[in-house]
Amino acid sequence: MKLLLDFFPIALFFLxxxxxxxxxxxxxxxxxxxxxxxxLRWKTGRVDVMQWVSLGVISVFGGATLVLHNESFIKFxxxxxxxxxxxALLIGEWVFxxxxxxxxxxxxxxxxxxxWRQLTWAxxxxxxxxxxxxxxxxxxxxxxxxxNFKLFGSLGLMLVFIIAQAVxxxxxxxxxx
Length: 177
Description:
Blueprint: H1 2-20, H2 22-44, H3 49-68, H4 72-94, H5 100-105, H6 113-140, H7 143-169
Helix pairs in contact: 1-2, 1-7, 2-3, 3-4, 4-6, 6-7
């Protein structure tokens, strides 16, 4: 259910783009993110930090797109989110000497410290690649191609990356006795 809720604004953005264009889609994405956060706050009493960051980024970049009537701003949004996530992992590792992935997933997954570091670096690299790829598609192809990439390409690459990691990590998972 949470996964479906996380993709709610993206799916509505895609649908609104197909029906009304980039400015309608941007307005819908801002509204959908607000609804998503209000729902989570009402249903669970809490909202994840990443969802607040996403609201801030969509509000700033989406707002700039609408106010300045320039679609370039909304195209930066995914890259800014990827940079935030990769940067958070790096700051956690370098500044606070804490592996944020291990803190998030350590209860579900027991791995040696070097493997957690490799996992962190893999995610940082993935976020850098995805941020660069988003900008390349956004500014070398049509807006329609970028919107299609945002939904299908980004999610598809994320799925492939997660499956590849699962295969890699399966060597380190010990069967329960």
